[in-house]
Write a structure and sequence with these properties.
Rossmann fold; six-stranded parallel sheet; N-(1-d-carboxylethyl)-l-norvaline Dehydrogenase, domain 2; alpha/beta; NAD; 16 strands; 461 residues; eight-stranded mixed sheet; EC 1.1.1.22; 3 domains; binds uridine-5'-diphosphate-xylopyranose; single chain
């Protein structure tokens, strides 16, 4: 078992620290945010991640996991130091490496024994070599520094599960000795290891995220075409996915990808790729498609109503995906900003992301404590995050509570057959409209059978 230090207690750092302590290593997590460290020492998380808090408390109690704000204390006995600090996006789309560089200086000043420095943060190709240069520039002790790139592939909301069940662990190293130690550290996870050079490892992370983002933008484009030709994108995705070369995963059409990784990493790779003779056109299109996709529901609603001024609209789901309270680059932000700019009144509901959303969204938004309150008296509902609670919400309640039941579903939460049983006007992504008056090949006049709805209302009353 090894003595390991992790710098940065965000998603990646904390999950790595907790999971490495769970498999038996002695782990000390370092963060310059003293308030955060105080909370973590008391077993409290500032992020929502299933099972993370329980596992963290267990390992603190076992004496294998501790926290500090002091780099000297953190590095004193460490044989391996993981860098897991943020690499936020700069205004030009490239990755900001300030935090990484600061950690490199701290390692140079405080490491006291030969150490392997492992970068978990997503960094542009060549950054690990730069880290080594900085460490050597400021190094005060006579010690040996080895550098390893070990990119992280976990997903928010299933981070613990992914750490124990990942498809591969990528280790990019310049010497076999360092690679072998990192391989041994990870052995208890029993996940296949792929060893390569540092630059290729750095590239694997960007290429993987860019490829997954491409799959999403591709299926979203197919969804738009499906709407024009009257096909159903869900059936198309299933039929495509049965070809094992394509695979079924990441072919769910919706309102695009958000979160802390895909938007940032695709922009960063686009920046890295570009030079005077080359531009990554395909990736640029993937990004553009996603930007457009994120506010598609607003376009659909405008087409349906003609204008949104004065309309009361409920937005259900604010997190960028279910099982997280993360709203970074979430479609909800872009949608709500546009709705407000169009003059609509917005109510919003999310099971856990409201606190974070309140800090980011405009003060005009009315946050509600449940779905019923959010949709009551509204002219339209936008489904933005496919929380279980939203999927399971009884459809008849939309009919009872809304001014007139019109749903714009950005996540295809409901089966079309189920929806047909209700007098709800239903617009989803890449699928036929329900209860809208359609003409040839799925084109829509956006007028509904008012009679059906009124009849249903009367039965309910
Ligand atoms: C992603 C990668 O999956 C992970 O490997 C990497 O390390 C970090 O980035 P994460 O951001 O947690 O993880 O979320 P993920 O589950 O991949 O979803 C990203 C976004 O894509 C979400 O907004 C999701 O709604 C969207 N998505 C995903 C789709 O729209 N369709 C899909 O088929 C899959």
């Amino acid at each position: 078992m090894r003595n390991v230090a992790i710098v940065g207690t965000g998603y990646v750092g904390l999950v790595t620290g907790v999971c490495l302590s769970e498999i038996g290593h002695n782990v000390i997590c370092i963060d310059i945010d003293q308030e955060k460290v105080k909370k973590l020492k008391a077993g409290k998380l500032s992020i929502f991640e299933p099972n993370l808090e329980e596992l963290m408390i267990t390992n603190i109690e076992r004496g294998r996991l501790s926290f500090t704000s002091d780099h000297a204390e953190g590095f004193k006995d460490s044989e391996v130091i993981y860098i897991a600090v943020g690499t936020p996006q700069k205004t030009d789309g490239s990755a900001d490496l300030t935090h990484i560089e600061q950690v490199a200086v701290q390692i140079a000043l405080h490491a006291k024994r030969d150490v392997i420095v492992v970068t978990k943060s997503t960094v542009p190709v060549g950054t690990n070599e730069r880290i080594k240069e900085i460490i050597h520039e400021y190094l005060v002790s006579d010690i040996k520094i080895d550098i390893v790139s070990n990119p992280e592939f976990l997903r928010e909301g299933s981070a613990i599960h992914d750490t124990f069940n990942g498809d591969r662990i990528v280790i990019g190293a310049e010497c076999e000795h360092a690679a072998t130690i990192i391989e041994e550290i990870n052995k208890p996870f029993q996940i296949p290891v792929y060893k390569t050079d540092i630059r290729s490892a750095e590239m694997i992370k960007y290429a993987s995220n860019a490829f997954l983002a491409t799959k999403i933008s591709f299926i979203n484009e197919i969804a738009t075409i499906c709407e024009h030709v009257g096909a159903n994108v869900e059936d198309v995705a299933i039929g495509m996915g049965q070809d094992s070369r394509i695979g079924t995963k990441f072919l769910k059409a919706g309102i695009g990808y958000g979160g802390s990784c895909f938007p940032k990493d695709t922009n960063a790779l686009y920046q890295i790729a570009g030079h005077k003779d080359y531009s990554f056109h395909l990736l640029k299109t993937v990004i553009d498609v996603n930007n457009k996709q994120q506010t598609l529901l607003v376009d659909k609603a405008k087409k349906r109503f003609g204008f949104l001024k004065g309309k009361k609209i409920a937005v259900l789901g604010l997190a960028f995906k279910p099982n997280t309270d993360d709203i970074r680059e979430a479609a909800s932000i872009f949608i709500i900003n546009r709705l407000i700019a169009e003059g609509a009144g917005v109510t919003a509901y999310d099971p856990i992301a409201v606190k974070k959303a309140e800090r980011v969204l405009r003060p005009e938004v009315q946050f509600m404590s449940n779905i019923e309150k959010a949709i009551h008296g509204t002219d339209a509902v936008f489904i933005v995050t496919e929380w279980r609670e939203i999927i399971d919400f009884p459809l008849k309640k939309y009919v009872e509570l809304m001014n007139r039941p019109i749903i714009f579903d950005g996540r295809n939460c409901y089966s079309l057959n189920e929806m047909k049983k209700f007098p709800i006007e239903y617009y989803s992504i890449g699928r036929p409209i329900i209860n809208g008056k359609t003409t040839n090949k799925g084109d829509t006049h956006m007028s509904v059978s008012v009679g059906k709805w009124t009849k249903y209302k009367l039965i309910l009353e």
